[in-house]
């Protein structure tokens, strides 16, 4: 690992710990909640304030980088050239509003489109998952994580987004039927943590770049596959129907997709 | 609270703490897993050993009581007369096997069919939820819980069992649509804990007596409603399609059920 990336990592961890403290402080006061595209797509004053805080910090750390933020306080990205920071200030905003738990702060750093560093901060449990190729591993705070076992779809639980299950998008119901069962947690970041810890073998959801940027870096580093539901690389400038899975489960799921001649 | 019930409570807490230690010790060794009715209905050596241990302890504490245990080491119950202990040695066995997390040990105590004391032990977080009318409240270890806010279905998240959602039993999909969203955790006990903590407003699942015995006592004590999906009292000698919900959300859900003329 180069000295530069090590310094970057140290600066990011410091920034994220400050961000967490600010979020916890703001949670003492009533939230201001607004709807974005619909009544289940929320944004709060804390999402917005935290994105502003993080992006200001990132500008200091890495002044020439591009920054893509969920709430729109970053740059208008048209390419992934150079260094790009992708920021989700509060992932799982519905959980944040309704549970004050089970949400994450996430940052992914890409260089010319290739993931380099990822950060998923489980705020309420105060565990910061971080790593990537530039660190040569993934850590939960100071504890290095082993790669999750490469289990088949039939041998594990799979995370899912509720709407995909209900509307049976991309054979979700058959995939769940073959698996040991589904779990629905309401936060892509918390789902990624479950996969890193081997508690689920994968996750399927329609995701924006900030929902998956950090997770893709961390999970790839642990040998877990991240692709579109039909096995292609993600477009990190757009939405994707994302399939995260162990190698074996990815194969099992792609076979279910291919068996559908209508695709 | 009578002296008798207080002594009973002290003895049960001691028994459950011993049971937890034994479960943690057994988790160091490989599990023996067997299928019951199908490949998603599991039992392990730990479920069986823990039920035997708990029932032996209960026989010492309360020799004349009847005991109903999930794995069949208790009595064959034909009535709820007298004192009845209902035991789930490992609730969320699939989570126990696949995650080594998110499972519970549960005991409910009924007198002539009326819930008196309930215990849900979140084993991995080491938090014992206990209470009921004989204790005059509900506690998470030593911390007394406030009643969850009585929110409407539209204002909160609802726990669900995966199969009910996929097969759209009892208008599950409409109920979820009206709510803020569904969560699926894979353990009735962990779902009950979420409701006690106000993180979800309810839970709908097909449950056996041992899945709901403790939860019914604890949640009723906190003002949360427990009924069948059509609003009737549970039959604690049989399976029920169970609706657990805040008062307002129960009303909203029963209205959705009643709007279906085919019922």
Rg of chain A computed from alpha carbons, rounded to a whole number of angstroms: 18 Å
Helical run tally of chain A: 8
- In N-to-C order, the SSE pattern of chain A is HEEHEEHEEEEEEHHEHEHEEH
Low-confidence stretches of chain A: none
Total domain count of chain A: 2
**Mean pLDDT across all amino acids of chain A:** 96
Q: Which geometry of chain A do the CA atoms define?
A: globular
CATH topology of the largest domain in chain A: Fructose-1,6-Bisphosphatase, Chain A, domain 1
Please report the two chains with the greatest interface, counting residues with C-beta closer than 8 angstroms to the partner's C-beta.
A-B, 25 and 25 residues
Report the structural category of chain A. alpha+beta
CATH H-tier superfamily of the largest domain in chain A: Fructose-1,6-Bisphosphatase, subunit A, domain 1
Helix content of chain A: 25-40%
CATH class of the largest domain in chain A: Alpha Beta
Under the CATH scheme, the architecture of the largest domain in chain A is 2-Layer Sandwich
Q: Note the gap between the termini of chain A.
A: 43 Å
Commentary on this structure:
The structure is a homodimer of 263-residue chains. Chain A has 263 residues and is an alpha+beta fold. Chain A folds into 2 domains: 3-144, Fructose-1,6-Bisphosphatase, subunit A, domain 1 (Fructose-1,6-Bisphosphatase, Chain A, domain 1, 2-Layer Sandwich), CATH 3.30.540; 153-258, D-Maltodextrin-Binding Protein, domain 2 (3-Layer(aba) Sandwich), CATH 3.40.190.80. Helix content of chain A is 36%, strand content 27%. The mean pLDDT of chain A is 96. At the A-B interface, helix 3, helix 4, helix 5 and strand 11 of A face helix 3, helix 4, helix 5 and strand 11 of B.
């Amino acid at each position: 690992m180069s000295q530069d990336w090590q310094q970057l990592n140290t600066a990011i961890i410091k920034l994220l710990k400050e961000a967490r403290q600010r979020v916890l402080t703001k949670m003492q006061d009533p939230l201001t909640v607004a709807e974005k595209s619909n009544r289940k797509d929320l944004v709060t004053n804390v999402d917005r304030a935290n994105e502003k805080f993080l992006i200001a910090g990132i500008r200091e750390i890495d002044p020439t980088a591009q920054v893509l933020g969920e709430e729109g306080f970053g740059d208008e990205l048209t390419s992934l050239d150079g260094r790009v920071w992708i920021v989700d200030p509060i992932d799982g905003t519905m959980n944040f509003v309704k549970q004050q738990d089970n949400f994450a702060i996430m940052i992914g750093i890409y260089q010319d489109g290739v993931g380099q560093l990822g950060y998923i901060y489980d705020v309420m449990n105060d565990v910061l998952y971080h790593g990537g190729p530039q660190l040569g591993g993934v850590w939960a705070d100071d504890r290095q994580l082993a790669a999750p076992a490469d289990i088949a779809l039939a041998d594990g639980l799979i995370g899912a987004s509720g709407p995909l299950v209900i509307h049976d998008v991309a054979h979700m119901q058959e995939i769940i039927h073959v698996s040991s069962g589904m779990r629905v947690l309401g936060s892509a970041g918390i789902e990624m943590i479950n996969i890193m810890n081997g508690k689920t073998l994968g996750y399927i959801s329609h995701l924006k770049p900030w929902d998956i940027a950090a997770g893709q870096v961390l999970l790839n580093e642990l040998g877990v596959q991240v692709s579109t539901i039909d096995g292609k690389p993600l477009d990190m400038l757009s939405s994707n129907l994302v399939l995260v899975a162990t190698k074996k489960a990815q194969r099992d799921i792609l076979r279910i997709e291919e068996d559908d001649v209508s695709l």
